[in-house]
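4.2 Preliminary Data

To establish feasibility before requesting continued support, the project team ran the inverse folding procedure on a target of 199 residues. The structure was first converted into the token representation described in Section 3, and no sequence information of any kind was made available to the design step. The complete token record follows.
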């Protein structure tokens, strides 16, 4: 289990994180037709915590043998955390268009990660140089928007793309935009922090 060093203000405990990981995995397992397990008393108590009833953006990421297997989430809090985790666990497992749906025999090899987001805030900048300088490498989740297109990278993506120029170029391509459009100064950019837990 890991806590993004930039997001301690997200405020969940490791016990709450373990409960959310259990919830995500159990939700996927039940959808695959596996007999449901009852949570142990500590997990059940955590899932009732008021903190997990707050409306927050959530992402669920699935990896298999270290490779991405699905990642779906919401950037803003439209549901309580527990409901968002359940919904996004199902979407990550079965509805990520980049991958085929998860099958039952894969489940044991899949690692689950749950991310809880702070509210995105606009990043104000005047030049591409200022944009690069204001990004906090390894800390910021980044949203870009231009016209009707946009995309986001969670802070965890900095591990694969630690150079801000590469991070932004890949993010632009993910959003269906030219890789270098961030240099134009016309992108809307928002940032957020993440507290994440992994199995």
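Position-by-position output of the design step:
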């Amino acid at each position: 289990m890991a806590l993004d060093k930039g997001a301690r203000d997200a405020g969940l405990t490791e016990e709450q994180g373990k409960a959310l990981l259990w919830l995500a995995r159990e939700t996927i397992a039940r959808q695959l037709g596996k007999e449901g397990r009852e949570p142990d008393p500590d997990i059940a108590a955590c899932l009732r915590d008021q903190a997990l009833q707050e409306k927050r953006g959530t992402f669920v990421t699935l990896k298999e043998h270290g490779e991405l297997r699905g990642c779906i989430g919401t950037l803003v809090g439209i549901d309580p955390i527990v409901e968002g985790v359940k919904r996004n666990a199902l979407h990550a497992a079965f509805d990520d268009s980049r991958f085929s749906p998860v099958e039952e025999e894969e489940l044991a090899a899949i690692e689950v990660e749950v991310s809880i987001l702070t509210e995105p805030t606009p990043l104000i900048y005047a030049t591409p140089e200022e944009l690069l300088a204001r990004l906090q490498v390894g800390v910021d989740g980044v949203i870009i928007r231009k016209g009707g297109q946009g995309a986001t990278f969670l802070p965890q993506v900095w591990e694969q793309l630690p150079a801000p120029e590469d991070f932004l170029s890949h993010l632009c391509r993910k959003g269906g935009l030219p890789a270098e459009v961030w240099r134009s100064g016309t992108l809307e950019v928002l940032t957020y922090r993440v507290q994440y837990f992994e199995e």
